[in-house]
Amino acid sequence: MANPKYKTSHSKTRRRRANIHLTMPSLTTCPNCKAPMLTHHICPSCGKYRGKTILKSEEPQEN
Ligand SMILES: [Zn+2]
To answer: Which of 52, 55, 56, 59 could form a disulfide with 47 if both were Cys (CB 3.0 to 4.6 A apart)?
Structure first.
């Protein structure tokens, strides 16, 4: 069975993992209401995507 010849040092492990980090999602502004929104997603503020209303504005619901 193939085995690594040398043990990976802590330094090498940590250098490799230094590049693993979270990245910010790409945000854009809605052309309708100027609110920040994710690209290729429905605007969470006005519920529109590419000029079309996908979600209607929610009214307060009573449970
Ligand atoms: Zn919007």
So the answer is: 55
Q: What is the pTM of this model?
A: 0.52
CA of residue 33 to ligand 1 center, whole Å:
4
Q: How far is the CA of 5 from the centre of ligand 1 (A)?
A: 57
Q: What value does the CA radius of gyration of the chain take, rounded to a whole number of Å?
A: 23
Task: Tell me the per-residue pLDDT of 13-58, one tens digit each, with 9 for 90 and over.
Answer: 999 999 999 998 899 999 888 899 999 999 988 888 888 888 886 6
* Cα–Cα distances in angstroms (integers) from residue 44 to residues 26, 28, 58, in the given order: 15, 12, 11
